[in-house]
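Project outcomes to date are best conveyed with an example. Our students and postdoctoral researchers have been running inverse folding experiments weekly, and each run begins with a structure described purely in tokens. The record below, which covers 398 residues, was selected by the lab manager from last quarter's runs and is presented without edits.
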């Protein structure tokens, strides 16, 4: 099976290099022959390409940096991400694979989905729209804003599912409840976007308070769907993506369970994202026999957001897990410093009134050690933290 995958990659990317001068130049600069790819080790000889590099190449040679290996009439849309970075969407497909998420969640004909993601420039709105329709659902293209009107739409059309940011979903749910009563709420599933802070805790509260199941996917504008929730732990990798977890500096693979940068190779070589560094950090939960990743963890944060403490990279996601595991925790922040030539890490936690501090301290220490694989030097309880306080601060050079 895996031999066939790499044979397919070898054939597709050899042909792509003949059409895309930017890709050909990348291969030549690395001394890399795509025709000789027969394994993951062969593929890994190509250095990782960062998103910043793609942006630079596009500025030098707009719009696609010489990386498009398809004809213009093969492109259905051009998306524009901050930068700007131009991403071509080829004709065909079902939301670049997002239909797998909807099917895993049990969406089927008869479901009515309110899609509140943005429909212009960026891909989210259109990709969710295409994917939901591919799963057989009826879609209402709501876009962002108009909370009162969209609440009315939810009630009067019998919406059964909502695609939204976590914050906007909560705003809509509260508006429906306030204006129409809880009995008007018929929503069963919510497809939510990830946020900073205690996102998983928010999802659990949403499920308990509003009687919905929440679902998420990991997708980027460059690649479409990378991985999706299917009811198991973490995210199942899209079958048409070869995913690796790599050291963000060397680009080499890290051991299973170790956090690193998510590096993706798409098997659709018309837009040749081969060994593309997403800038996101995760770790492998399960691997395939060839060494590629079959299931990834929840994202730990951006690679640049990690702080190295005593030779271990700590990510903002670890502090989020501490908050989830600590009874009564309302907010938390970890600060890494360097004292007497030793890295130290202090976690500040805001607790609800009447919370048991001893129980909170023990739970926070256990959670941090479990997820970070090192011990916190100090845990303190404070009355408040700034509303926009980052989860993790590097003060070692301050």
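After processing, the design step wrote out the following sequence:
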């Amino acid at each position: 099976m895996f031999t066939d995958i790499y044979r397919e990659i070898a054939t597709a990317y050899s042909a792509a290099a003949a059409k895309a001068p930017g890709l050909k130049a990348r291969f030549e600069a690395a001394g890399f022959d795509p025709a000789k790819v027969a394994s993951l080790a062969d593929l890994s000889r190509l250095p990782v390409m960062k998103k910043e590099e793609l942006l630079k190449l596009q500025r030098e040679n707009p719009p696609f940096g010489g990386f498009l290996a398809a004809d213009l009439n093969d492109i259905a849309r051009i998306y524009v991400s901050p930068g700007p970075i131009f991403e071509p969407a080829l004709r065909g497909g079902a939301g670049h694979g997002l239909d797998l998420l909807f099917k895993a969640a049990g969406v089927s004909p008869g479901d009515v989905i309110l899609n509140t993601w943005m429909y212009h420039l960026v891909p989210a709105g259109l990709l969710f729209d295409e994917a939901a329709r591919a799963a057989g659902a009826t879609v209402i293209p709501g876009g962002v804003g108009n909370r009162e009107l969209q609440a009315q739409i939810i009630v009067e059309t019998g919406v059964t599912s909502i695609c939204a940011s976590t914050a906007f979903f909560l705003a809509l749910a509260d508006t429906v409840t306030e204006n129409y009563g809880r009995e008007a709420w018929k929503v069963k599933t919510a497809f939510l976007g990830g946020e900073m802070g205690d996102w998983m805790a928010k999802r659990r509260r949403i499920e308990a308070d509003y009687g919905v199941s929440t679902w998420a996917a990991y997708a980027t504008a460059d690649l479409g769907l990378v991985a999706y929730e299917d009811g198991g732990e973490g995210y199942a990798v899209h079958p048409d993506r070869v995913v690796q977890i790599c050291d963000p500096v060397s680009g080499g693979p890290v051991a299973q369970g170790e956090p690193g940068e998510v590096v993706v190779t798409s098997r659709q070589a018309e837009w040749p994202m081969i060994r593309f560094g997403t800038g996101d950090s995760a770790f492998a939960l399960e691997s395939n026999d060839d060494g590629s990743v079959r299931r990834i963890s929840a994202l730990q944060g951006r690679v640049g957001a990690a702080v190295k403490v005593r030779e271990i990279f700590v990510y903002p996601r670890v502090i989020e897990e501490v908050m989830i595991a600590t009874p009564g925790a309302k907010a938390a922040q970890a600060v890494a410093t360097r004292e007497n030539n030793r890295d130290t890490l202090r976690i500040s936690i805001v607790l609800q009134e009447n919370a048991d501090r001893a129980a909170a301290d023990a739970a926070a220490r256990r959670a941090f050690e479990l997820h970070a694989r090192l011990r916190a030097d100090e845990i303190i309880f404070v009355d408040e933290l700034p509303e926009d306080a980052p989860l993790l601060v590097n003060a070692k050079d301050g």
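The domain at 95-215 is CATH 3.40.50.12780 (Rossmann fold). The CA atoms of residues 10 and 34 lie 5 Å apart. The training component of this project remains on track.
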